[in-house]
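Q: Structure tokens for this one, please.
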Amino acid sequence: MNFFKTLLLSIGAMVFLSGCTLNSRSYKTPNHHVEFKKADFEFSSPQSAEAKSVTIVGLDFSRLFKKEVGMIDTEVPTSGFSLSSIPIIGSLSKPNRVHSYALYQIMLENPGYDVIFYPRYEVKKTGIPYIFETTIVKATARLGKLK
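A: Here is the predicted structure, written as tokens:
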């Protein structure tokens, strides 16, 4: 009995005195920040493009297996073809897919530009929502090239 008391006391003392140790190191990634001024860009005249989407019961059959997207969000696209390497500056609201299709057309028709500035959208919707709906979006924006 004395042996078990001594053994139990020894194990308890080792657990109490050993404790847990956590060693960690962290490195901060640099905050990449580049400032541009208006004089750093060569601006185009306003460029426009139009996109049309016809949805039947919420499905756009013309783009069911084909994706054409101009990304505005900062998230990485998960699927489909995109020209997301062109940054879009000044979009205040999150556009829907048809807005992205119109931006894709602007990017496709004007190669060689680095930035899209302040896109504006004209939206026309017709039909019965969620059953048969036609959406036409005309996007207009200035494009910029770095000097």
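A few notes: Residues 72-84 have pLDDT under 50 and may be disordered. The radius of gyration is 29 Å.
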